Amino acid sequence: MLRVGQPVTVLPSGHTSTIEAIDNLGDAVDVAWAPQSVSLRLADDLDVARGDLVVPRDAAVEPTRRLTATVCHLSDAPLRPGARVLLRHATRTVAAVVEGIPSRLVLADLTQHPEPGELMANDIGRVVVRTREPLAVDPYARCRRTGSFLLIDPSDGTTLTAGMAGRAFGEAAEAGAQGTDGQGSEAPDCSHMT
């Protein structure tokens, strides 16, 4: 949730300001939350572009160009280390490279197959991706909206892979899956606006 008078950070730039006003369909309001469509007026003249995140200052994550994630590969074409892809995160799309595939889940016994070399259609695995531009990515267990992404084929725009940033499933469950209220709703600290 964002409120008038609240200190905020714009990501990935890291610039800070204070919310001076919030407009919702032409009406001034005191509070806004994702996924509402609102206009924020900041106290400072900042360059805020489509895809930037506006977050409460105390909830800002460190933007990164390298992320590790659990993914489900959706394409018939295999995903291999070195693949050049587009990464779609929230409303931002950036160029990226698959640096590695540390493991693939073996569904027969739920063990991890280390360094499989590729992911085929319907494989679930861990990947390491390096992006051209920094992204403000939350762990998926904390915030689904900003912890999820797609890998896209840059030549034709088809979706290759759906990803969830952060810990693997088993590790997230052991950590308590802090990202929801137990009924599938986002945690209160998931208050990012794009």
Set out the fold topology:
Blueprint: E1 2-3, E2 7-11, E3 15-24, E4 27-29, E5 31-32, E6 39-42, E7 53-56, E8 64-73, E9 84-89, E10 92-106, E11 111-114, E12 124-135, H1 144-147, E13 148-152, E14 159-165, H2 169-174
Give your account of this protein's structure.
This protein folds into two domains: 58 residues, Translation factors (Elongation Factor Tu (Ef-tu), domain 3); 111 residues, Beta Barrel (Elongation Factor Tu (Ef-tu), domain 3). It is built from two helices and 14 strands, in the order E-E-E-E-E-E-E-E-E-E-E-E-H-E-E-H. The chain has 194 residues and is mainly beta. The protein is elongated, with a radius of gyration of 18 Å.
Annotated CATH architecture of the largest domain = Beta Barrel
Total count of strands = 14
Termini separation comes to 13 Å
Query: How large, in whole angstroms, is the Cα Rg?
Result: 18 Å
DSSP helix fraction:
under 10%
The CATH class label of the largest domain is Mainly Beta
Q: Superfamily at the CATH H level of the largest domain?
A: Translation factors
Number of domains: 2
User: What are the segments in which pLDDT stays under 50 over at least 5 consecutive residues?
Assistant: 172-188
User: What's the order of the H and E elements?
Assistant: EEEEEEEEEEEEHEEH
Mean pLDDT: 87
CATH-defined topology of the largest domain: Elongation Factor Tu (Ef-tu), domain 3
Strand content: over 45%
Structural class: mainly beta
Spatial order of strands in the largest sheet: 8-12-10-9-13-14
- Spatial shape: elongated
Instruction: Give the count of helical stretches.
Output: 2
Major β-sheet annotation: 6 strands, antiparallel, barrel
